[in-house]
Amino acid sequence: MRRRILFVTVMPSPYQRELFHALHLDGRMEIRVLYCTGGAFDRNWSIPSLCAYEEILPGTTISLLGPSAHFNPGIIGMLREETSDLFVVSDYSAPTMQIAMRYLNRRGKRWLFWGEVPGLRTRGRFGRLMRHWLQQPIANGAAAIAAIGSEAFEVYQALFPKVRIFDVPYFCDLTKFRVAANQRRKRKKESIDVLFSGQLIERKGVDVLIQAFVQISHQVPELRLQLLGTGPCLHTLTDLIPFELRDRVQFLGFQQPNAAPEIFAQADAFVLPSRHDGWGVVVNEALGAGLPIIVSDRVGARDLVKHGSNGLITRAGDIDSLACALLKLAQSGELRNSYGALSAERAAHWGLDEGVKRWNQVCDQVLAEQQ
After folding, report:
1. Dist. CA 215–CA 347, nearest whole Å
2. What burial class does residue 285 get, using C-beta atoms within 10 Å of its C-beta: 0-12 exposed, 13-18 middle, 19+ buried?
3. 17-72 pLDDT tens trace
4. Considering all CA atoms of the chain, what is the largest pairwise distance in Å, rounded to the nearest integer?
5. What is the sign, positive or negative, of the torsion defined by CA atoms of 351, 314, 180, 13?
6. One-letter-per-residue 3-state SS of 261-325
7. Cα separation of 114 and 91, whole Å?
8. % of the chain residues with pLDDT over 70
9. Whole-number pLDDT of residue 45
10. Rounded CA gap, 271 and 224, in Å?
């Protein structure tokens, strides 16, 4: 008999939907997915028609609590009628997730928490108490935690020493990036294009990237920046670029996910300099595109980057550290080719097949412990 697994997650993001579709096609589990919302103020993804196993719950956002404070009043009714063998809940801070976790605990249901590295900012006494209260349902009732990457694994081990932790990073379909990248090798170009992909917000560290680029730009005249994404910091970032360098920094704006493979294929290197990133699926995409990769040491997806092998890891927020890494790659085509080839090799272990395998293993073990 197939296991029935219910996922309660935030929104139908493209990379999560890829995983859910792969799990559905695999057939070893019967999945159902409930989304708190169909979109978000900082995500412009166009969502294709949902599959039969997916549903967006009616609800609202409690704006006083923040942009991610999703509240779906029908969640208890949905869970009460659900006969799944295992429940998977993500994003513990949202009101709907709090209701779901506490209800599942009261009913003695088998469930696990699925989460990235939490942003453990320094908080005052009230903030610490609130965080402790929000995490209580996990400590008191979760059968396990599916931690998204090795750093999340270590953080959750420290936070919840009595809860079993599994390392389940994000996996996505890299085939289209690999195919597009094969075309790159046939092109001749004079520029060296460094790509960033993500929101233009302070947390992503794009200001650090621009200042690092400015610092070394005179040493590598052919170096250019390609910034994919949009956000509230656009004008502030533009102001950081000296007039004489503005033709070497291109803001590509927001693009739908289906445009990403070709954009990545045009690049010669990829950078994600975040001050904090719970994971960063764009690093998966850069891996699939066979790019040398630079990430900060606060990016969860640095699991995909081996320093000095297929990329470089810099100190978050450190302009000089990033400038040195950029210069090292920019001045050596041989190094870029070597790192890129190793990224392409590593990408073979980061496809959806591995994600399906990991999730089946986790569900098997968690449900076996119940028997």
Report:
1. 32
2. buried
3. 999 999 999 999 999 999 999 876 556 666 768 999 999 999 999 988 888 899 99
4. 68
5. positive
6. HHHHHHCCEEEECCCCECCCHHHHHHHHCCCCEEEECCEHHHHHCCECCCEEEECCCCHHHHHHH
7. 7
8. 95
9. 66
10. 12
- Is-contact 8 100, C-beta < 8 A? yes
- Fold observed for domain 3-172+351-368: Rossmann fold (3.40.50)
Q: What is the pLDDT confidence band of residue 186, given thresholds at 50, 70 and 90?
A: low
Q: Do domains 3-172+351-368 and 175-347 have the same CATH topology?
A: yes
CATH number, domain 175-347, options 3.40.50.2000, 3.30.1360.120, 3.40.50.2300, 3.20.190.10: 3.40.50.2000
Q: Please report, for the chain, the start and end positions of each structural domain, with discontinuous segments joined by +.
A: 3-172+351-368, 175-347
Q: For residue range 116-161, list pLDDT tens digits in order.
A: 987 755 567 777 788 889 999 999 999 999 999 999 999 999 999 9
Which parts of 106-248 are beta strand (E)? 111-115, 144-147, 164-167, 192-197, 223-228
Q: Say what the pLDDT of residue 371 is.
A: 53
Q: How far apart are CA 82 and CA 248, in angstroms?
A: 55
How far is the CA of 332 from the CAs of 91, 141, 329, 338, in angstroms? 42, 53, 5, 10
- CA-to-CA dists, residue 118 to 114, 185, 275, 300, 363, angstroms: 11, 39, 13, 10, 23
Sign of CA dihedral 73, 134, 198, 168: negative
Residue 201 in this model has a pLDDT that exceeds 70:
yes
Q: At residue 240, does pLDDT exceed 70?
A: yes
* Identity of the residue numbered 54: E
What SS3 class is residue 123?
coil
Contact 111, 142 (CB under 8 A): yes
Query: What does the alpha-carbon distance between residue 310 and residue 54 come to, in Å, rounded to a whole number?
Result: 37
